[in-house]
Amino acid sequence: MKKQLGKIESVNGNMIKAVFSGDIIQNEVAYVITGEKRLKAEVIKITGNNAFLQVFEYTKGIEVGDKVEFSGEMLSVQLGPGLLRQIYDGLQNSLPAFAEEFGLFLPVGEEIDALSDEKKWKFTPSAKKGDKVTGGSVLGSVPEGIFEHKIMVPFELTGDYRIEKISTGGSFTIKDEIAVLVNESGLKEKVTMTFTWPVKIPINAYREKMSPTEPMVTKIRVIDSLFPVAKGGTYCIPGPFGAGKTVLQQITSRYAEVDIVIIAACGERAGEVVETLKEFPKLTDPRTGKSLMERTIIICNTSSMPVAARESSVYTAATLAEYYRQMGLDVLLLADSTSRWAQAMREISGRLEEIPGEEAYPAYLESRIASFYERAGVVKLHDGEKGSLTIGGTVSPAGGNFEEPVTQGTLKVVGAFHGLSRARAEARKYPSVDPLESWSKYDGIIPQDEVDAAKDVLRKSDEVSQMMKVVGEEGTSQEDFTMFLKGDFFDNVYLQQNAFDEVDAATDAARQKYVFKKTVGILKTDINFTDKAEARTFFNNLRHKYIDWNYKAWDSKEFKDQEKEIDDFVEETRKRDAASTPA
Amino acid sequence: MRKVCTKILNIAGNVVAVNAERVAYDELAKISTARGESLAQVIRLDGKTVYLQVFAGARGISTGDEVQFLGHPMQVGFSKNILGRIFDGSGNPRDNGPSITENMIEIAGPSANPAKRVIPKTMVRTNIPMIDIFNSLVESQKLPIFSISGEPYNELLARIALQAEVDIIVLGGIGLKYDQYMYFRDTLEEGGALTKTIFFVHTAADPTVEGLMVPDLSLAVAEKLALEGKRVLVLLSDMTNFADALKEIAITMEQVPSNRGYPGDLYSQLASRYEKAVDFEGAGSITILAVTTMPGDDVTHPVPDNTGYITEGQFYLRGGRIEPFGSLSRLKQQVNKDTRRDHRAIMDVMIQLYSQYGETEEKRSMGFRMSDWDKKLLKYGELFENEMMDLKVNIPLEKALDNGWGMLAECFKPEETNLRTELVNEFWPKKK
After folding, report:
1. Phi/psi of residue A39, nearest 5 degrees
2. pLDDT in tens, A416-467
3. Confidence grade of residue A351 (pLDDT, cut at 50, 70, 90)
4. Residue B382 CB: number of other CB atoms within 10 A?
5. Hey, is the C-beta of A345 within 8 angstroms of any chain B C-beta?
6. Does B373 touch chain A (CB under 8 A)?
7. Which residue of B lies nearest to A302 if distances are taken between CA atoms?
8. Do B134 and B12 reside in the same domain of the chain?
9. Where are the alpha helices (DSSP H) in B139-177?
């Protein structure tokens, strides 16, 4: 298609209106030529021969009458080996590469290739001449760090193709031809190791989508044990500022038992991203013994970077995630924060003068949120293997009020809800996931009856504590008071976790199962305390011993010794009180 | 050649519209009126119509006044002589000194590449235990002080400014009361810090729009200094006035308001200022402390709410004390592991117990009988408030930690706290 030209008619913040002639495509990329600079933009509305574009850069200096060049291509990302370990902005420009070329500040109107054209990859074919293939079929693989990066038929080739020619293996750059495909009508397609895909369209080069069943272990106890997430599932973490959303995401990105983690830092603080990108290369992945960076891609569009690129950054992240899912890997996409993405939509909608919905968000907010989370799932691929994409998004509700449109729109579509509470955060109870409000529709690692028992204790304990506020401790029965202490104990020793302790920060599935069972056992133990003071002392001491236990390495001698101390202590108290108070 | 217009089409609020061609977005113009000259900035282009926000306000502008486009965006002069100077919200001298016209730098420049930032690691000691122990301030942090009008937030800012070991202080006043401006000037002068301070002061008496430029001016100068290797502390008071000025312009421009009249891009606007806080690889740093007054003491008000999501924590100043609940320094974990082994544990335990004290205090005020445990908590709470929270307490971190252990030992047995045994063995004060 011929590339079209246009002229700028008006400028309003990051929204410009241009007059064009000929044909242009909705969501196509255009460039605003202002002086020496080429500012990237996207067509988001067309009326008559007016095109409305959101500009991915600050619009300072643009004049009415400046030229616009339409590219004829939708906003796309480049896929191929070499994506892992990268730190991209929302438009897939490498930030370290920018830093090398332009120094301390982000350049305006510059682009950089997402993948290296020069690096050679060792290709090993797995398909052979004559094989029938289609978009997503595997042709071979190259080693990329700890993974076998599968080289696939470009997803846009959806028809039936036959391999006419394929390389027998060797070192190639991503631009070298490795195979030639031919379809029924004889049309030939040359295939390299790289191709592009438009970010706003989900990749669907798989056989079928299945329902998520297998738990994804995050090593955060309150999540895995009480409100689990499934591989291929979706979850959201809404919470007021300061409740620990980002820390929770960071811990998940370190310890989650998945193959690949894609972090989309969307409109959040630059400092937090810096932490991730400086720390990750130094941290080892317990699963592989290699640097955590080997399995990570960071998409970073911080709050001071232009708003329109923020909107596209979550789509960029989702597309890269889907690409690795196509290789049969388990991928986790962490988006922090989806509210900033929604706000970016709101800003753009406002400048388009669309009729606003609730809190001035556009009417299509909910459907956009839904279609984003719908990109998650477990899929069966053409070769019968399974891949999964799990999406976890934080939500930053205005005023910490969950009744706002983004939280509500998200809750409708996700499978688990980890609501963070300001009250818990202020009392330094981390992670501040509210155990009474949160929910999950997925099956976890702990047997359901044990989970129900624990939740029951938490609920009753909360009821008693509410009641105590009215009637006081002296107006509460011994039995109720013990129940209150049990809930408080469980919260302290199991739900709360010290993210800054090496051992306590991550609890694997085996330990969770073991400790949960034991803890529920203690919650179920009836002890006839003589009075409230004794009960309080007992639980204080027990909590102390338990917290020490949490800091001991799993299955170590210290772990077993501490466990014995706990058992003895409980048993001793139970016997003593059973003897002192005749039934 | 500079473009000149002599016909103003519309005047609404503080925004005027003229017809002009080849005008750039964000460009600056000069409007000459019978009352003097004012700067104005292009905020929208629509065909031939150019909309400008007038810094001095549109009051008194005639439709026949002259608008001269300057061909460049807002700039600020930057020279060696800038230290100790006082400017207004348009960057003009307020101290009868000469204008700085050499070496003009653009304000609101591009943001720093995250790949070139370094992880903050230097604690800024303030000798205020509520900050040093519980929410350590870190170089390159951006932190607001949430408060209501009438609280001594400017006094707190000035105290931190004097005690913090920084090279240069940039004070940006937005809608600052005249006496508060004088207070800052006098305090810094008494403390001998005036010669390392630069003021950009917009007082409550100045036109509202002029205040909009203050954060950008302050931060542009701070950034330049940081690039020269200086450690700069930027104080902004009060950012709620800044947000209100944004609201005023947005409404004049008939933008769809999102929440209580504030524009939908309030978050981005605030973020692009706060995110200038930075620790550059191989150069200096910018630390931002800003006052955000909360209308009606409501933290869910759009200004404190959006600010809280942007900044790296917040200090609540209430009743003349820094509240332990809600106050947070997100960067404290970067520095409090290297101070003293017991720092983190003391920080957590003392707050947990103080929170329990709060519950007990509630019960007590309702007339419930106090158990032994309650009595211990009450004793502890009082100690904590008097010897930790009081802003008069002015002691170094180590001394404050020792005092913390003393308070715990005075009120509790070791197992009543959540402290690890090894720490108890090492630090718990032995009975005399």
Report:
1. -95, 125
2. 999 999 889 888 889 999 999 999 999 999 999 999 999 999 999 999 999 9
3. confident
4. 13
5. no
6. yes
7. B114
8. no
9. 153-163
Q: Helical H runs in A415-531?
A: 422-426, 448-471, 478-490, 509-524
Which domain, by its residues, includes B34?
A: 4-73
Per-residue pLDDT reduced to its tens digit, A477-527:
999 999 999 999 999 999 999 988 889 999 999 999 999 999 999 999 988
Mean pLDDT of A185-203: 95
Same structural domain, B66 and B90: no
Q: How far is it, in rounded angstroms, from Cα A326 to Cα A202?
A: 12
Q: Which of residues 187-226 of A touch B (CB under 8 A)?
A: none
Token duo for residue A66: 């400046």
What value does the mean pLDDT of chain A take?
93
* pLDDT higher than threshold 80 for residue A583: no
CATH of A448-580, one of 3.40.140.10, 1.10.1140.10, 3.40.190.150, 3.40.50.2000: 1.10.1140.10
Q: How far, in Å, CA of B59 to CA of B210, rounded? A: 14
Strand order in the sheet with A188-191: A132-133, A161-166, A179-183, A188-191
Give the pLDDT of residue A1: 53
Angstrom CA distances, A553 to A257, A507, A508, B337, B419, stand at 19, 10, 11, 21, 18
pLDDT at A2: 64
Say whether both B394 and B316 belong to one domain: no
Q: Are residues B133 and B189 in the same domain?
A: yes
Q: How many CB atoms lie within 10 A of CB A85?
A: 17
Q: What percent of chain A has pLDDT over 90?
A: 80
Contact partners, residue B118, CB within 8 Å, separation at least 6: A274, A278, B279, B280, B281
Q: What is the ipTM of this complex?
A: 0.86
* CATH class for the domain made up of A206-440: alpha beta
Please check whether residue B144 lies inside any domain of the structure. yes
Is the domain of B144 the same as that of B292? yes
Q: Which residues contact B394 (CB under 8 A, 6 or more apart)?
A: B127, B128
Domain check: are B242 and B359 in the same one?
A: no
- Per DSSP, the three-state class of B24 is strand
Q: What is the pLDDT averaged over residues A315-330?
A: 97
Q: What mean pLDDT is predicted for residues B388-408?
A: 94
pLDDT tens digits along B54-69: 998 888 999 999 999 9
Contact with chain B for residue A533, Cβ under 8 A = yes
Is A112 in CB contact (< 8 Å) with chain B? no
Give the angle A60-A66-A69 at the CA atoms, nearest 5°. Answer: 105
**CA distance to partner chain B, nearest, from residue A399 (Å):** 4
Same domain, B114 and B257: yes
Mean pLDDT over A538-557 rounds to 94
* Whether pLDDT at B178 is above 90: yes
Question: Per the CB < 8 Å rule, is A104 touching B227?
Answer: yes
pLDDT tens readout for residues A195-212: 999 999 999 999 999 999
Nearest to B23 among A63, A337, A500 (CB): A63
Match 């609201």 to its residue by tokens. B247
Contacts of A401 in chain B (CB under 8 A): 300
Q: What is the pLDDT of residue B1?
A: 52
Interface test with B, best of A7, A9, A11 (most B CBs within 10 A): A11
Mutate one of B22, B25, B70 to test the A interface: name it (highest A CB count within 10 A): B25
Residues of B in contact with A267 (CB under 8 A): 267-268, 271
